[in-house]
Specification:
Shape: globular
Order of helices and strands: HEHEHEHEEEEHHHEHEEEHHEHEH
Strand content: 15-25%
Helix content: 25-40%
Length: about 350
């Protein structure tokens, strides 16, 4: 495992992403992009770019442009929103690469939004972390988690049921399932820990009494937790570990299903795919190769606070060691992503009914 310091925020892309998004949306009809232009456009889930400019993407984009002369135009959103946008733009494709979390990368594949490309180094990525048909591959491994405010709470909540306590009323928030990847992860963990849809939805219905309300992006919740506006929020290890330098009041935890049970989590990798009919396909392929190159994979921990996707990359930097300690004793389960992809809409609908959302 590997780790590293870097800020992860959805606010990271802020003005630049919004401005670019507006410009791209304004285009109509067939794409007028010059296929020979030295640029690519990346649609990505939040988390790998820092609002301070010292995140994983910040370094990767800068180094890639210096190495190749290809500029990266970056558009940030929630995982589900990125796929929805690709679908809307199907007849006028603007993005070259999409980076999103499961089950949304599978959803993009199922909607026919990706095309086959196996980046150099993909042979070193575990079979479960890449598409068997070559449509996508993990570039940064990661795990789902929750965070709490260490200043206000003497210790982390041990179980899901601890989150029902009155002290968390209007002080707990998780991002919206079906929109945010980490929000969807709340559903996945609940389904696993409670043993099925019925008991999971019953619990999430009870938890809604403490929930502040919807959030389209998980990264927005980290600074609120650090400031004490929230006491508990969902997140993921890469994002929250990377943020700790600037948000020292955050603590990472993994709630157990019941007292005495082991805490649980599951892998939630950032997966990248080549967009079908990408306007700058050759440039996009170079970028995907670069993301899986050994030097960049070593930066995943040292800069990005995440876990290298390549099996042959074994970082030993201080952050990698800290992440290994953080994950010690946590049971990692394997979701059935095909089942989740197939039934995601029904799971989200059940959640909406249970929570009156």
């Amino acid at each position: 495992m590997s780790a590293a310091p870097a800020l992860r925020k959805p606010l990271a892309a802020c003005c630049g992403a919004l401005a670019l998004a507006a410009a791209l949306t304004a285009c109509g009809g067939a794409s007028g992009a010059d296929p020979n232009a030295k640029e690519i456009t990346v649609y990505s889930a939040d988390g790998l770019k820092s609002e301070n400019g010292d995140g994983f993407y910040d370094q990767v984009f800068k180094d890639f442009e210096k190495k190749t002369g290809i500029k990266v135009n970056y558009v940030e959103s929630g995982s589900g929103a990125a796929v929805q946008r690709l679908a809307r733009e199907r007849a006028n494709t603007k993005a070259d690469v999409v980076v999103t979390l499961p089950p949304f990368i599978q959803q993009a594949d199922g909607k026919g939004l990706l095309q086959v490309y196996r980046p150099k180094g993909a042979d070193q990525v575990a079979a479960g972390d890449k598409s068997p048909t070559g449509k996508w591959t993990a570039i940064v491994n990661n795990y789902f988690c929750f965070v709490y405010n260490k200043k206000e709470l003497a210790k982390a909540p041990a179980t899901w049921h601890d989150l029902l306590d009155d002290r968390f009323a209007h002080k707990l928030q998780y991002s919206t399932p079906g929109v945010a990847g980490d929000g969807t992860a709340v559903l996945i963990k609940a389904l696993h820990d409670f043993g099925g849809r019925g008991p999971a939805m019953k619990f999430l219905g009870r938890l809604q009494a403490n929930n502040v309300g919807p959030s389209s992006s998980t990264g927005q919740l980290a600074p609120k937790t650090d400031k004490g506006e929230l006491l508990v929020a969902n997140g993921d290890v890469q994002m929250n570990f990377a943020n700790m330098k600037s948000m020292p009041n955050q603590g990472i935890f993994f709630p157990a299903a019941a007292p005495g049970a082991r805490p649980t989590t599951f892998a939630l990798p950032y997966a990248a795919g080549l967009v079908k009919n990408a306007p700058h396909r050759a440039n996009a392929e170079k970028f995907l190769d670069y993301l899986l190159s050994e030097p960049v994979q070593r930066q995943v921990s040292a800069i990005g606070g995440g876990f290298a996707a390549r099996k042959d990359t074994r970082p030993t930097d201080p952050n990698a060691k800290a992440l290994a300690r953080l994950m010690a004793g946590v049971e990692v389960f394997q979701p059935d992503w095909n089942d989740i992809d197939k039934h995601l809409d029904s799971y989200v609908d059940a959640w909406k009914t249970a929570t009156n959302s």
